[in-house]
């Protein structure tokens, strides 16, 4: 996938050399708190090396760095479903805490959603949001996703058992 240049940010492939910026933004408990168990905390150089290798593997999934003023500030991706879930893709995104509330996640999510629509590979775009992350719910709704379900007490994170919400957009 070619880089996507937006008003303030660029979405691009992860690259060797991104590790310091990735670690600087990802090694934050407030970032970790809103992400799945696959996102470690603390976030180490080994984690960054592994991520860049995984992100650039040749699969149907897409994993992109979010770059602002030449620096990595987060990531966004679409993990392709398999087998009976092949028409579904799970959307995920994160930003370093210093970049929250600046519109960067909205730009990134809209651009990735538009790209996935033009590719016509998937029918269902889906995102899971933890109950305490109202900003992410608002972001998904702004990008045309609708709340489909509440999965009660489905997430165990940071010592709490909470609900999660599934947001979808159909192509």
Automatic annotation (TrEMBL):
InterPro entries, sorted: Acyl_CoA_acyltransferase (IPR016181), GNAT_dom (IPR000182)
Highest taxon listed in the record's lineage: Bacteria
Chain ranges of the N-acetyltransferase domain: 9-171
SUPFAM superfamilies on file: Acyl-CoA N-acyltransferases (Nat)
Protein name as catalogued: GNAT family N-acetyltransferase
């Amino acid at each position: 996938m070619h880089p996507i240049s937006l008003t303030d940010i660029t979405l691009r492939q992860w690259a060797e050399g991104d590790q310091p910026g990735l670690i600087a933004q990802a090694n934050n408990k407030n970032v970790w708190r809103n992400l799945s168990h696959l996102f470690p905390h603390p976030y180490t150089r080994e984690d960054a090396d592994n991520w860049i290798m995984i992100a650039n593997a040749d699969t149907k999934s897409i994993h992109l760095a979010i770059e602002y003023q030449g620096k990595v500030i987060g990531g966004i991706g679409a993990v392709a479903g398999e087998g009976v879930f092949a028409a579904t893709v799970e959307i995920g995104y994160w930003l370093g805490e210093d970049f929250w509330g600046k519109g960067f996640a909205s730009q990134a999510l809209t651009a990735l959603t538009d790209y996935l629509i033009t590719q016509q590979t998937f029918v269902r775009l889906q995102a899971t949001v933890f109950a305490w992350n109202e900003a992410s719910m608002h972001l998904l709704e702004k990008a045309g996703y609708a709340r489909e379900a509440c999965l009660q007490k489905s997430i165990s994170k940071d010592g709490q058992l909470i609900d999660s919400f599934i947001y979808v957009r159909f192509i």
